[in-house]
Amino acid sequence: MHPKKPFSQACDNNKGPILDTLRQVFTAPTTVLEIGTGTGQHAVHFATHLPHLYWQTSDHPNHYQLCQPWLIDAGLPNIGNPIALNVSQEPWPLMEFSGVFSANTAHIMAWHEVEAMFAGVGRGLADSAVPENEERGQFCLYGPFKYNGDFTSASNQSFDQHLRSHAAHMGIRNIESLIELAQSHGMVLAQDRTMPANNQLLVWRTTTEPEAL
Fold it and tell me: Where does the record place a coiled coil (predicted)?
């Protein structure tokens, strides 16, 4: 084992429930772009158990190499070396992907970055979408969200206050705002799955026709 592997307890706790959903979403061989790979624990776990996927890691240019110890230690052939990805800078440094996964990023990013992430995901999935195959062109977004402006738990409300005290641009997002944003980039909410610790896993899929806002 690499002596300096970073570790996230949250990743270790939620990797099993997330994998259960990813097994059902990404059933066909495809390239999945992970936005915000972080420590690399998710990437290694999912690539290990979903060998039919090519898992392309990425993170912000300031810390995209953080995951390398986990990737090197695992030595898996279906994980791509991390890409430095600033979602707000176009074009994105990736040739092609037909699936996307991102965990605990929407409440860390500023809202304009969330908008840029959805725009980039929408473009990438639209370019690779296969209309007759709904298994392609899907975006899995994990984290805490608000519904009708309300937190799903007292702990999420406390977490939101903690985020905003740390940086004003952070905060738990309203799912209605994300639904509207996704629609503007050719995606609709196909699944909303309840996860442990008051989190959700949202599955967006590309549409063949733009939806009216």
Answer: none
Helix (H) or strand (E) holding 46: helix 41-49
pLDDT of residue 198: 97
Long-range Cβ contact pairs of 146-155 (< 8 A, separation 24 or more): 146/172, 146/173, 146/174, 146/175, 147/174, 147/175, 147/176, 148/174, 148/176, 149/174, 152/198, 152/200, 153/198, 155/198
How many other C-beta atoms lie within 10 A of the C-beta of residue 46? 22
C-alpha torsion 181→183→121→46, nearest 10: 100
Residue 207 and residue 62: Cα distance in Å, rounded? 34
In this structure, are residues 94 and 56 in contact, taking their beta carbons and an 8 Å threshold?
yes
Residue with tokens 């040739």: 95
Domain annotation for the chain: domains and CATH numbers: 9-206 (3.40.50.150)
Q: Is the peptide bond before 82 cis (omega within 30 degrees of 0)?
A: no
Say yes or no to pLDDT of 22 above 90.
yes
The span from the CA of 139 to the CA of 122, in Å, is 9
Task: For residues 92 and 106, give the distance between their C-alpha atoms in angstroms, rounded to a whole number.
Answer: 18
* Cβ-based burial of 148 (10 A; exposed 0-12, middle 13-18, buried ≥19): exposed
pLDDT in tens, 64-111: 999 999 999 999 999 999 999 999 999 999 768 999 999 999 999 999
